[in-house]
Amino acid sequence: MAQFSVRRDVTTTYMALNNETTPPLASMTEDSAAAPTMITLDHEHEDATNVIIHKVPQTKGGWTHIEDLDSFFTRMYKYYVYGGFYPMVMSELFYALQFLFIVWFSTFLVHCVNYPKLFREDPDANRSVKLSLNDVVYSSAECVDRISWKWWFLVTICCLIWLMRVVVSIYNLYYDYDTKLFYNNALKIKESDLAWVNWSTIQDRVREAQPEHHMCVHKQEINELDIYHRILRYNNYMVAMVNKNLLPLQVHVPCIGDFHYLSKGLKWNLEFLLFYSPFSPWENCWQLRQAYKDHTKRMQLARQLEKQIILLAAINFLLAPLIQAWQILYFFFNYAELIKRSPGSLGLRTWSLYARETLRHFNELEHELRDRLNRAHKPATKYLASFSSPITTVFAKNIVFLSASVLGVLVVLSVYDEDVLTVEHVLTIITILGCVLAAARALIGEEERLGGGCTGPARGEELFIQVLGHVHYLPAAWRGRAHTKDVAAHFQQLFQFRAVYILFELLSPLLCPLVLLSLRSRALDIVDFYRNFTVCVLGIGDVCSFAQLDIRRHGHPDWQSPGKFGDKSKVCNAQYKQGEGGKTELSLVAFSCRHPGWQPSEPAQRQFLRSLRQSMHHAIPANNALNKTMLGSYIQQSIFGTNTPLPAVLSFYQHQREPQFRLPDMDETSDEDEGPAPGPTRPSRPPSMGLA
């Protein structure tokens, strides 16, 4: 028996590795006086005395039986996104230096500059004499004496925050270096090779390393969905809550109406409240508190959550002045030079944070979402540019003509003689005219600038279908009405001007407490959501049930068809359970396309995808049944990478009656007769589901 190693403290080890509170052998170890029993990890056999002995594999590096796989896989993904360890070090270093610079530079501007002398406010000042830098800057001793105790108090708080940030950065970099060793030794991927390695390759290497290193104790093998569940555990909950309209991310403005609102500060507060705070519904990063799974405690938990929301809103309200000042300084230092150099950049469009949460699929990583929305940027810009008002266009063209004329003359004169710039307010006029010129050009539609004109409603519908091919978002109220200004106005809330994005971020300290207070009425709904849409997966922990991509439980009736699963009445889910807008089906298709070797565990998923592959082989080339479904349009345009809408899809989309989207009927082959799902063998990439 000397050849077998004995593990100490079986109960504690089992709890740490298996995410469970009571090990199955706890009672046995307490009641029995025998030697400690070992936990089976790989092999088990019985000797002559009928004692079960487990052989623990030899440790490979420091990655055997990792307790917190969520953090481990998240660091692994972060390492891939940043491009290695040294870019992460530089990012943390420059973030700390940037924080110090903002504090120091703000202090310098407020207390160390002689503004009366700089602006020559003294009427007896000689304006013909040029001022030097030393003339308008106080000495170091004078500067220190001018700083009040209140400002010193703020600087002290900032220094404490900076020290805390440095400690956290050092802690993170310690584990990031371990991630670097994992890439180099376990995955055999050097940092210099990351630029030429895609994420799917890294996942394949992780799956190959699992049997050797046993990172996950419960499974001999892990698949792509296991890794995504770990990295996106909380993100999937957030996407599901937004999809079910559980979070009140709307602000009412008098005389304007309601608009969707989600800023970085508000998102951080929501994630802190729902996932990361010590009083959040989560006992640890992989397990929901047991009380949230008990129906009898829902009212008590809702009252507790309401108190936490009020407390968090009050803290945001008290810190609003400080946060507001920091926001103004941060955005000024970030965008002042950009606005001066390229004022037209404020007229460019970007996807709002609300759009990123609304358009995100379940189990979609950040870089995958970014790439998809980047592909949609150009058609979305063309779509909104087609709504330029003729009156606005005429007005903007004349503003461009007048501004460009005056600006051109001033520029030519300044080139001829640079003393023109020393004339009072000339430089200011040039700057203002540049901003006005950029803003006026932004009001002119792209097709007008290129010399073309709008071709009517058909053009708007055609452009909108190109957008749908990437964003995969179509509320029922938008069907057949993409050419109307009402739909365009709602779409602008998802695809907003950069100037609006900056304005929303600056207003975040003021609006965040109001939105949090409106969340109080949803406290009970949030508690019920956690209980009803949380499932425990062996080896993974508690995950959002929507992230399981279970189309039988969360499928939308408009995206399914009656087939081998029975009548539609049996297939349709209650509205409370279904994913809105076909998000469950689209997420399943998107995940399967990104990971063609992934084998779904549910028969309904395999049947859904198999029927879809068959339909894509026959229906899309033939331009028939599947082309008349929005899912077929999405697959054709997003997966195969074409922006040309099918005529059948266009005519079907423009039809005014309520469309009935259906997948082709499932084939009659019984999925249960296929035998067990394939094991570790990875099938070849199906050409029909390949990414462009």
Please give a structural write-up:
Helices cover 56% and strands 5% of the residues. It is built from 29 helices and ten strands. Strands 1-2 form a two-stranded antiparallel sheet. It has a two-stranded antiparallel sheet with strand order 3-4. α3 packs across α8 (149-186) and α4 packs antiparallel against α8. The longest helix is centred in the middle third of the chain and has 44 residues, at 298-341. The protein is globular. The two termini are 57 Å apart. Residues 677-686 have a biased composition (Pro residues). Belongs to the ATG9 family. InterPro entries: Autophagy-rel_prot_9 (IPR007241).
Short descriptors:
692 residues; mainly alpha; two-stranded antiparallel ribbon; lipid transport; Autophagy-related protein 9; 56% helix; membrane; transmembrane helix; transmembrane
Oligomeric state as shown: single chain
Structural class computed from helices and strand pairing: mainly alpha
Number of strands: 10
Q: Provide the spatial order of strands within the biggest beta sheet.
A: 1-2
Q: Tell me the strand percentage band.
A: 5-15%
- Arithmetic mean of pLDDT: 77
Number of helices: 29
Query: Terminal Cα separation, in Å?
Result: 57 Å
Largest sheet: 2 strands, antiparallel
Helix content: 55-70%
Overall outline: globular
The Cα radius of gyration reads: 30 Å
Task: Identify low-pLDDT runs.
Answer: 1-49, 447-454, 562-572, 619-631, 636-692
Biased composition (Acidic residues): 666-675
Subcellular location: Preautophagosomal structure membrane
Transmembrane segments: 85-110, 151-174, 309-333, 394-413, 425-444, 499-519
Protein name: Autophagy-related protein 9
